[in-house]
Amino acid sequence: MSEMISKRNNLLAQKVIKGLESRNMTGYYAKTKEEALKKALELIPEGASVTMGGCMSAREIGLVDALKSGNYNFIDRDNMEDKRAAMLAAYDADVYLASANGMSNDGVIVNIDGNSNRVSAIAQGPKKVVFIVGMNKVCADTDSALKRARNVAAPINAQRFGLNTPCSKTGACMDCKSPDTICCQFLITRFSRHKDRIHVILVDENLGF
């Protein structure tokens, strides 16, 4: 990433962090994936139960591998025969890992979900939620973040999962009601009633979709 882009990202990240603080959430800025991994592990105590949805960003910074190999109770739904049990276990986890499909520059987090296990766990249940968010997800405002979620993240995820949706063929949201749609539930996280529950690690990298 060029020096000028990194300089811009650093300044923008400080604005996002102030916005998060005003919303009773805590933000951090990491220049590299390695810094992001270090900060994430600082937020997750050893022995904690940890799980996640399909958070590609957590994988990309090496967090999932670190949890699997460390002293943590990582609930890995990908390796559990009973997927529903794994999803339900998330609501009582110490830490839930997530990312954003889009985020406003004043700290509003936008996510879209098909099965809704991810957005429901972000909203309620786990004692702590740790977001890993690449600066590529930060948008001018909430409307822009929502448009990004629908027109960038959703089509790519539909293609990734091999779903038969209009967006997987056109690359843009068609506001469909396809049986395969993953745009079932929209979650806009604009404030956390519980202080110290939501932590957002912004990373000066292009992470996730």
What is the strand and helix layout of this fold?
Layout lengths: L2 H20 L3 E5 L2 H11 L5 E4 L3 H5 L2 H7 L3 E2 L8 H7 L5 E4 L3 E3 L4 E5 L3 H7 L4 E7 L3 E2 L2 H19 L5 H5 L14 E5 L8 E6 L6
Parallel strand pairs: 1-10, 2-3, 2-4, 4-7, 5-8, 7-10
Antiparallel strand pairs: 5-6, 6-9
Describe this structure in words.
- By secondary structure, the protein is an alpha/beta fold.
- The chain has a single domain (3-203), classed as NagB/RpiA/CoA transferase-like (Rossmann fold, 3-Layer(aba) Sandwich), CATH 3.40.50.10420.
- 39% of the residues lie in helices and 21% in strands.
- It is built from eight helices and ten strands.
- The protein has helices spanning 3-22, 33-43, 56-60, 63-69, 83-89, 117-123, 142-160, 166-170, and strands at residues 26-30, 49-52, 73-74, 95-98, 102-104, 109-113, 128-134, 138-139, 185-189, 198-203.
